[in-house]
């Protein structure tokens, strides 16, 4: 070993001999070089260069010899063997592990070394003068490497190991890889070269000798046959050669499950029982098909095969127990059907397509369910009842009946009662034996249009068994309220309104509940045919007020009253009459055909009501004052037609004057008693009345024409009267006071509600009516 170190050093420096010293030829070369340098004066102060260089030494690990292990020798060119040079050593382990002979330069290892703990040491060496201690050359660094020997066996650091491989796997399927480590030097020899082999576990598994990869060696291993396997694996160094160190580890290999087995029922028929009172969704019983697989591969789906009696039941899968739970799907009745028979199919929820060739992955079984009879409450013939009653029906009227039956073999009698939930339920009563429902009092649809009552049926032999049913009572509307006209209080029109023009659209409202398609009909009263306006029914529950003539004048008459009859389509039909107030407007500068909401403010002459006797007295006075023109009018206008020949053409305005004064209540302006008792003034003229009747009629027609055309009107207060046509006239009187008011209105008592002025008018008209009646 010492020679080997020396040779290695020699290979590093060819001028070293086998003992690590300089050869004679190299020494002579150095001496000649120094002589030349002295001659030329270059030796003094010149740094001496080391003549040889070492790099590393080797020491054998785990040395057990009695003496310190020799490592190598250091020598300097400045050492001539005269013991004038001393060698020093420093660095890792200097003095404790390694030592050097200061005179000879020999290095020894004092203790045994372990390469696995430390593979090399770095040290420094230097040659110094033994007397002065001065360095003869610079310090040099070298390495001492610990030479490896095969003193460490391979080790499995994580053993024992566990692995898994799917069952039914083909040959060569990867299972796992196991690796061992060796603390020896892998760069020196074969101490760390490991080889793997299986000691136990064949023929099921194999291992790659170099990589330690374990694979299946037998195909189609079945988990249901054997699930766990144990493999003993060995790792040996020195490439597996004889003398190498070895170790073993255990690998536990399990076969994981695949879905290679179908579910199977253990018997052919399942018998179940269920009471007929079982509610929908309640459990009847459980069936089970067993699957040898585990986990999700053992999940089983259950389904009822269509047909037979399976429509009354359902089946669901229980995820934990993998059982099929039979549930009630429809109500059961022992009296109707006592047993059910159907088939249930079990199949894998997640089949594996690789194993479908092994056969169908499903199975079926017959299920028989027997219905058990129980004592049940009475059953109503309907789930709910709806009854109708008119709101004007008298108390005690029967509105309907309910029926419940006991379907059990005992067939007990049934008693009926009402379950009062609200105060309104007290409006009804029920016959406990027959189940007929009647009213206790008269119903009002306007208060409650519908009642919801609950009827209870109880078995006579077991009062604890009862059932309930809902009865809805609809209160039907009776046409008890007449429709009401829906129109503005006042309607306005222009003087220039055309014939056929619609001046107002009206509708109607009814407090009764309108049935589908209810209609309102509008018309004028048959006994009062108005010549100025008419009512036109549009057919859509609306109507229009239509003008029948033209030539209206506000100063002649500014207000017209039009009665309108509204009738509904109910049974019995109800109707009401409303009076529209139509006001005439001048509409100066306004569009005559446009809608009017009001009239512009201006002075309007009001009518003054006088008795017939007063009017006749005034007419006679006027006739005597203008006797001459009568003769002319008699002969000159004999052929002129009468302008007012119809009974319907009646003027309500008799007297117009601009100064209203105190109204009808003002009796100071003239003596009312004189006008009321005109007999004293008529006596002197009574013989002439018959003779001048024709003249008066023609005079009235002449003035009427002037008034209608609007020309020749005097610019002062005037009294225009034309209430007397003469005795025996066919058309009858034109006076609205003498006849029209009586015909149209009859009783004037309602006019008193319009205020104080009209109360005086009512008193006059009442006396006038009595006078006419007596005549």
TrEMBL record:
<dbReference type="GO" id="GO:0044331">
    <property type="term" value="P:cell-cell adhesion mediated by cadherin"/>
</dbReference>
<dbReference type="GO" id="GO:0007156">
    <property type="term" value="P:homophilic cell adhesion via plasma membrane adhesion molecules"/>
</dbReference>
<keyword id="KW-1003">Cell membrane</keyword>
<dbReference type="Pfam" id="PF01049">
    <property type="entry name" value="CADH_Y-type_LIR"/>
</dbReference>
<keyword id="KW-1133">Transmembrane helix</keyword>
<dbReference type="InterPro" id="IPR015919">
    <property type="entry name" value="Cadherin-like_sf"/>
</dbReference>
<dbReference type="GO" id="GO:0016342">
    <property type="term" value="C:catenin complex"/>
</dbReference>
<dbReference type="Pfam" id="PF00028">
    <property type="entry name" value="Cadherin"/>
</dbReference>
<feature type="compositionally biased region" description="Basic residues">
    <location>
        <begin position="25"/>
        <end position="43"/>
    </location>
</feature>
<dbReference type="InterPro" id="IPR020894">
    <property type="entry name" value="Cadherin_CS"/>
</dbReference>
<dbReference type="GO" id="GO:0016477">
    <property type="term" value="P:cell migration"/>
</dbReference>
<dbReference type="InterPro" id="IPR027397">
    <property type="entry name" value="Catenin-bd_sf"/>
</dbReference>
<dbReference type="GO" id="GO:0005912">
    <property type="term" value="C:adherens junction"/>
</dbReference>
<dbReference type="GO" id="GO:0016339">
    <property type="term" value="P:calcium-dependent cell-cell adhesion via plasma membrane cell adhesion molecules"/>
</dbReference>
<comment type="function">
    <text>Cadherins are calcium-dependent cell adhesion proteins.</text>
</comment>
<keyword id="KW-0597">Phosphoprotein</keyword>
<keyword id="KW-0472">Membrane</keyword>
<keyword id="KW-0732">Signal</keyword>
<feature type="transmembrane region" description="Helical">
    <location>
        <begin position="604"/>
        <end position="627"/>
    </location>
</feature>
<dbReference type="GO" id="GO:0007043">
    <property type="term" value="P:cell-cell junction assembly"/>
</dbReference>
<dbReference type="GO" id="GO:0034332">
    <property type="term" value="P:adherens junction organization"/>
</dbReference>
<feature type="domain" description="Cadherin">
    <location>
        <begin position="157"/>
        <end position="265"/>
    </location>
</feature>
<feature type="domain" description="Cadherin">
    <location>
        <begin position="485"/>
        <end position="597"/>
    </location>
</feature>
<keyword id="KW-0812">Transmembrane</keyword>
<feature type="domain" description="Cadherin">
    <location>
        <begin position="266"/>
        <end position="380"/>
    </location>
</feature>
<feature type="domain" description="Cadherin">
    <location>
        <begin position="381"/>
        <end position="485"/>
    </location>
</feature>
<dbReference type="GO" id="GO:0045296">
    <property type="term" value="F:cadherin binding"/>
</dbReference>
<protein>
    <recommendedName>
        <fullName>Cadherin-12</fullName>
    </recommendedName>
</protein>
<dbReference type="InterPro" id="IPR002126">
    <property type="entry name" value="Cadherin-like_dom"/>
</dbReference>
<keyword id="KW-0677">Repeat</keyword>
<dbReference type="GO" id="GO:0002009">
    <property type="term" value="P:morphogenesis of an epithelium"/>
</dbReference>
<keyword id="KW-0479">Metal-binding</keyword>
<dbReference type="GO" id="GO:0005509">
    <property type="term" value="F:calcium ion binding"/>
</dbReference>
<keyword id="KW-0325">Glycoprotein</keyword>
<dbReference type="InterPro" id="IPR000233">
    <property type="entry name" value="Cadherin_Y-type_LIR"/>
</dbReference>
<feature type="region of interest" description="Disordered">
    <location>
        <begin position="18"/>
        <end position="43"/>
    </location>
</feature>
<dbReference type="GO" id="GO:0000902">
    <property type="term" value="P:cell morphogenesis"/>
</dbReference>
<dbReference type="GO" id="GO:0008013">
    <property type="term" value="F:beta-catenin binding"/>
</dbReference>
<dbReference type="InterPro" id="IPR039808">
    <property type="entry name" value="Cadherin"/>
</dbReference>
<keyword id="KW-0106">Calcium</keyword>
<keyword id="KW-0130">Cell adhesion</keyword>
<feature type="domain" description="Cadherin">
    <location>
        <begin position="76"/>
        <end position="156"/>
    </location>
</feature>
């Amino acid at each position: 070993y010492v020679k080997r170190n020396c040779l290695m050093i020699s290979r590093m420096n060819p001028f070293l001999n086998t003992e690590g010293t300089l050869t004679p030829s190299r020494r002579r070369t150095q001496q000649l070089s120094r002589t030349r340098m002295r001659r030329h004066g270059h030796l003094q102060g010149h740094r001496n260069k080391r003549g040889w260089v070492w790099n590393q030494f080797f020491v054998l690990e785990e040395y057990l010899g009695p003496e310190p292990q020799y490592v190598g020798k250091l020598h300097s060119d400045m050492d001539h063997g005269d013991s004038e040079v001393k060698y020093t050593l420093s660095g890792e382990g200097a003095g404790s592990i390694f030592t050097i002979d200061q005179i000879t330069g020999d290095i020894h290892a004092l203790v045994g070394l372990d390469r696995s703990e430390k593979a090399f040491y770095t040290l420094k060496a230097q040659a110094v003068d033994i007397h002065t201690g001065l360095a003869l050359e610079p310090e040099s660094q070298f390495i001492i490497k610990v030479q490896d020997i095969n003193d460490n066996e391979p080790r499995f650091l994580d053993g024992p190991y566990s692995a898994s491989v799917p069952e039914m796997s083909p040959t060569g399927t990867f299972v796992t890889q196991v690796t061992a480590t060796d603390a020896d030097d892998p760069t020196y020899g074969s101490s760390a070269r490991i080889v793997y082999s299986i000691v136990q576990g064949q023929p099921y598994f194999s291992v790659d000798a170099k990589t330690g990869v374990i694979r299946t060696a037998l195909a189609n291993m079945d988990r249901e046959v054997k699930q766990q396997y144990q493999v003993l694996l060995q790792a040996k160094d020195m490439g597996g050669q004889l003398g190498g160190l070895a170790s073993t580890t255990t690998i536990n290999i399990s076969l994981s499950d695949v879905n290679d087995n179908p579910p199977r029922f253990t018997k052919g028929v399942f018998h179940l029982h269920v009471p007929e009172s079982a509610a929908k969704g309640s459990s009847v019983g459980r069936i089970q098909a067993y699957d040898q697989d585990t986990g999700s591969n053992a999940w089983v789906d259950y389904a009822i095969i269509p047909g037979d009696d399976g429509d009354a039941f359902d089946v669901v899968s229980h995820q934990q127990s993998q059982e099929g739970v039979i549930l009630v799907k429809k109500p059961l009745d022992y009296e109707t059907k006592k047993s059910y028979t159907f088939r249930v199919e079990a199949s894998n929820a997640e089949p594996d397509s690789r194993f479908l060739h092994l056969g169908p992955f499903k199975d079926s079984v017959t299920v028989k369910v027997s219905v058990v009879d129980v004592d049940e409450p009475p059953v109503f013939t309907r789930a709910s009842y709806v009854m109708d009653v008119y709101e004007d029906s008298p108390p005690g009227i029967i509105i309907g009946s309910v029926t419940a039956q006991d379907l059990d073999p005992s067939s007990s009698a049934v008693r009926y009662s009402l379950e009062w939930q609200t105060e309104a339920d007290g409006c009804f009563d029920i016959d406990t034996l027959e189940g007929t429902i009647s009213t206790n009092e008269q119903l009002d649809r306007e208060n409650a249009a519908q009642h919801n009552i609950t009827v209870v049926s109880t078995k006579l032999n077991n009062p604890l068994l009862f059932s309930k049913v809902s009865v809805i009572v609809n209160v039907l509307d009776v046409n008890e309220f007449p429709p009401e006209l829906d129109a503005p209080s006042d309607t306005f029109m222009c003087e220039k309104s055309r014939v056929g023009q619609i001046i107002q659209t009206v509708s109607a409202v009814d407090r009764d509940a309108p049935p589908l398609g209810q209609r309102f009909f509008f018309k004028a009263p048959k006994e009062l045919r108005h010549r100025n306006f008419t009512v036109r029914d549009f057919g859509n529950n609306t109507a229009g007020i239509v003008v029948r003539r033209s030539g209206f004048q506000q100063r002649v008459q500014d207000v017209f009253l039009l009665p309108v009859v509204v009738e509904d389509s109910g049974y019995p039909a109800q109707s009401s009459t409303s009076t529209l107030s139509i006001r005439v407007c001048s509409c100066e500068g306004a569009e005559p055909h446009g809608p009017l909401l009001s009239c512009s403010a201006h002075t309007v002459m009001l009518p003054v009501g006088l008795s017939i006797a007063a009017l006749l007295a005034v007419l006679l006075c006027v006739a005597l004052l203008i006797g001459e023109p009568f003769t002319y009018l008699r002969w000159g206008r004999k052929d002129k037609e009468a302008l007012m020949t119809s009974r319907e053409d009646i003027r309500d305005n008799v007297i117009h004057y601009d100064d209203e004064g105190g109204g009808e209540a003002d009796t100071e302006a003239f003596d009312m008693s004189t006008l009321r008792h005109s007999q004293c003034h008529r006596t002197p003229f009574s013989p002439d009345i018959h003779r001048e009747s024709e003249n008066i009629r023609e005079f009235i027609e002449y003035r009427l024409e002037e008034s209608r055309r609007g020309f020749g009107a005097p610019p002062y207060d005037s009294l225009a009267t034309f209430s007397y046509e003469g005795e025996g006239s066919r058309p009858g009187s034109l006076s609205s006071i003498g006849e029209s008011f009586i015909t149209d209105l009859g009783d004037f008592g309602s006019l008193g509600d319009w205020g104080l002025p009209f109360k005086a008018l009512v008193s006059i008209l009442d006396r006038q009516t009595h006078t006419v009646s007596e005549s």
